[in-house]
Amino acid sequence: MARDIKKLISEMTLEEKCSLLGGDDFWHTKAIERLGIPRYMMSDGPHGLRKQDDKADHLGINDSIKAVCFPAACATTSSFDRDLIHYMGDVIGKECQAENLSIVLGPAVCIKRSPLCGRNFEYMSEDPYLAGEMAAAYINGVQKHHIGTSIKHYAANNQEAARMSVSAEVSERALREIYLAAFETAVKKAQPKTIMCSYNKINGVYSAENEWLLTKVPRGEWGYEGFIVTDWGAVNDRVKGVLAGLDLEMPGNTAGNDHAVADAVRAGLVPEEKVDECVERILKVFFDYDDNREEQVFDRAKDHEIAARIEEECAVLLKNDGLLPIDPAKKYLYVGEYAEKPRYQGGGSSHINSFQVDSALECSRASGRNVDYIKGFPMDKDELIEADLEKLIACASEYDAVIVFAGLPDIIESEGYDRRDMSLPASQNKLIAELLKVQKNVAVVLSNGAPVELPWVEEVPSILEMYLGGEGVGQATDRILFGDVNPSGHLAETWPVKLSDNPSFLNFPGNNRRVYYKEDIFVGYRYYDTKEMPVRYAFGHGLSYTSFEISNLRCDKESFSDDEILKVCVDVKNTGNRAGKEVVQLYVSDKNGTIERPVKELKGFDKVELQPGETKTVEFEIDARALSYYAEDLGDWFAPSGEYALLAGDASDHITACGSVKFETKKMLPLHLDVDTTIGELMADPRTAAFVQQMMQSRMGGSETGEGGISGDAEQDNAMQTAMMQYMPLKSLISFGVMDKTQMEGLLQMLKNTVG
């Protein structure tokens, strides 16, 4: 039976209501015992439970219960598999029920603006479409068990430097298209129970006090129904927050702010109805959990195996010149302490006290592989063990191949600070370079949360990116190296050749007070592909032990309009000799040239399993929104009428099937009419184009200057005249004697009447 929350609120005192708007301690909300409202507990994190008891913290410093560490978002998003991440959410939701946790704090969909962000391992992608789709799948998986999620960090929290105070200076178009879009998708497709607002300011206003961010956009436009909670310690002024739409402040020690809200209500500064709405939203979420408890057992051993299977779908084969998979009958040498002690998760609030950690070395030996080991360098510092290097150089040629386990130490990559560069530790690069002098069959296995520079990339035959693959990463690595599993991950972020290629390079991380997003909408592949800049590995890139062919793109109609859906089909064939999975990616490109846009944007993807020689058809649906950009002057999404290219492939730089479609819209952009309006603007608008063209022909006699043709070729002269007039403001017609001021006033009025 549904509870009458409004009646319950009516029985509360003002102080009791306000108390529910702040936490009781680090992880619990406050109780009102006389009304039967208990404390509710929430917990980090996106890829496993970090449930703490007495010594609580938000940076992963103190211990938490033993739990299963699943692959981090940098890995799971590389799976491009909605069903997989939904399944992971399903498992985590069951674990929450078993551990009496009402909300798990994730997923994190902050856009990977720069590879240097220290928390990129916890974030999904540089692409908002991919991040939104994967986040929605995860949320639906968790929330099917009536466990809340907290999608974060809302919004424009794309760096750790000065994250608690910096103001992200960003255009509304970039916010809508890049930094809010994943949140929008998740809200519309999954309704996360909570949204966690970020520490930072956006254009000078703290997220926790931003009515546009907290109320107008999510509740007014997206139909958001849950409550908004702060990041831990993100409140600057709770009264302003409540007025803006903030519901819950975390963590505890909020009594002063509770009283401040109550005093503001009594003073008439905050309507009590505002407080009632906050309380209602909060209780609705917690009562849904309370009234739908499940009998679940946290089977850590079972979930550990699930974590390993998930990572097998996430690993990205970056390069392979035929060295992988390696033959189990031959002899190999593992080098690097990551082979023995894997780096499988990031530092900070998502850090999990793992149930069981598998290393590649122990898993390979347990499987009977013929593997020796030399440490070479430690996992936690940039230090080359010279004696091991000498030993390695002396014996490397005796092995059929050497597998180097390289990566970034925890100290380099963590919540709380950003990386200084994209380099691997110098000791690792030196070891690989020296090794290649005596052994050409070298495969590098990487463990890191974001792109790194690869100075030896041209000489190494194979590179396998495991990212931060969770506690089962050792199993997954062994099974992929030896061919028991065919890798199928694809990059959810671009790997630039060098850091200075990144579009945010000159504006990251700002000056502690402000960071200017001058690259605007050109983030990640949107920048590299538009600029035609070479990259190390493109967005969407990922190899396999088999081969695929993506072809025969076709549409169910030649044109469509605002309210219609376009169906796009493409064939994918396994052209190799073993089973595998391919990620088919669909991009859209606006060919109309009406506004500056990326050369293409991801609007569909699907992961398909195929047997050798098998062909399957993948179907995508494209609507008007998929073609649209955010038009600030319209205050809405807008797709201009005209031609759009449809591009299918297995990476943003590897398109193998193309098509096109015509789109017709009834929407019109506002046309601002004054003496500075250009002839080009009027000619581009269908409401005024014919009128202006007729007027120019009649008033100018086909010649702008009255001196006759320039080239002697009428067609060429007309083209030149049109080009010259493109940026000519209407007031120039007065300067050139075409009309006087009174006639100009009449012209403007006629144009306004035409536009309506």
SSE topology:
Layout: H1 5-10, H2 14-19, E1 42-43, E2 66-67, H3 73-76, H4 82-98, E3 103-104, H5 128-143, E4 148-154, E5 167-169, H6 172-179, H7 181-190, E6 194-197, E7 201-202, E8 205-206, H8 211-221, E9 227-230, H9 238-244, H10 255-266, H11 272-290, H12 300-312, E10 316-320, E11 331-335, E12 353-354, H13 360-366, E13 370-374, H14 386-395, E14 401-407, H15 426-436, E15 442-447, E16 462-465, H16 473-481, E17 514-516, H17 525-531, E18 548-555, E19 559-561, E20 566-574, E21 580-590, E22 601-610, E23 615-622, E24 629-631, E25 636-638, E26 642-651, E27 654-664, H18 679-684, H19 689-700, H20 714-725, H21 732-735, H22 741-755
Parallel strand pairs: 1-3, 2-12, 3-4, 4-6, 5-7, 5-17, 6-9, 11-13, 11-14, 14-15, 15-16, 19-27
Antiparallel strand pairs: 7-8, 10-16, 18-20, 20-23, 21-22, 21-26, 24-25, 26-27
Helix pairs in contact: 4-5, 4-12, 5-7, 12-16, 13-16
What can you tell me about this protein's structure?
- This is Beta-glucosidase-related glycosidases.
- GO terms for molecular function: beta-glucosidase activity.
- It holds the Pfam family Fn3-like.
- The protein is an alpha/beta fold and 756 residues long.
- Among the domains are: 305-510, Rossmann fold (3-Layer(aba) Sandwich); 548-664, Immunoglobulins (Immunoglobulin-like), CATH 2.60.40; 679-755, no CATH class.
- 29% of the residues lie in helices and 19% in strands.
- It is built from 22 helices and 27 strands.
- Strands 10-16-15-14-11-13 form a six-stranded mixed beta sheet, sandwiched between helices.
- Helix 15 links the parallel strand 14 and strand 15 (442-447).
- Helix 4 (82-98) packs parallel to helix 5 (128-143).
- The radius of gyration is 29 Å and the shape is globular.
